[in-house]
Amino acid sequence: MTDHNGATVTHRRYIPYSHAHYGGNLVDGAYGLGLFGDVATELCILTDGDEGLFASYSDVQFKAPVRAGDVVEATAVVVRTGTRSRTVEFTLTVVCRAEPERGDSAARVLAEPIVATTATGTVVVP
């Protein structure tokens, strides 16, 4: 068994306004969980040469809003390597945010990224 602890994958994505689900251009929490599935898949390919299967979440915390017009980073880090399972910590951070009060297309890079969602999950590989 190879120890994959510390293996990390990060995806960056712009959230289009078509993904706003609630007032204030808020995006639903499931959007971030979908991104976690994407980084988990790449992480399994990187570490095990297989897409793997997402088995469960043991913890999900919604810490700050995610809005349409944000640029987010979804990161997955292996924190425990079992025979077939991997425990993975996920973080979704907002790195850029739209500023519609300055103009229709105004936005800025955040000096301090905002941690929006964290989770711990288990993936299984053959």
TrEMBL record:
The keyword Lyase applies. Pfam families: 4HBT. InterPro entries: HOTDOG_ACOT, HotDog_dom_sf, Thioestr_dom. Keywords: Hydrolase, Lyase. Residues 4-126 form the HotDog ACOT-type domain. One of its GO terms (molecular function) is lyase activity. It comes from the Bacteria. This is 3-aminobutyryl-CoA ammonia-lyase. It comes from Glycomyces terrestris.
